[in-house]
Amino acid sequence: MKINMNLEKYDIEALDEIYKTSDSLYNKSEELEILGVAMKSKLGIAEEEFSTNNYKRVQEATDNYLHKMKLMREELIELSKSCRELAEKIANIWQ
């Protein structure tokens, strides 16, 4: 996901806010991916506590979550990069 690079669309007061937001998006996406991997690894430990059907459902749901988190992370990385590009464009204009 990329942002609109048309400067007339934004009311920009501080470039550092764009950088902070960009970094925050990237860090959050990384955290969500790590949490998904941790959930997946803990499933094996809990397997004995589930009946076969319920375990399969939880496993499928976790796999689905990891897939969606991967897609979201890719989108957030692209958005973060796009925010940085916008900030750099603005910084060059302000110089």
Task: Give your account of this protein's structure.
- This protein is an all-alpha fold and 95 residues long.
- It has helices at residues 15-46, 52-94.
- Helix content is 79%, strand content 0%.
- The chain is rod-shaped and about 65 Å long.
- The two termini are 28 Å apart.
Question: What is the overall pLDDT average?
Answer: 78
What fraction of residues sit in β-strands? under 5%
Q: Which spans have pLDDT < 50 for at least 5 consecutive residues?
A: none
Radius of gyration: 19 Å
Largest sheet, strands/sense/barrel? none
Distance between the termini: 28 Å
Structural class: mainly alpha
Shape: rod-shaped
Task: Offer a few descriptive terms.
95 residues, mainly alpha, 79% helix
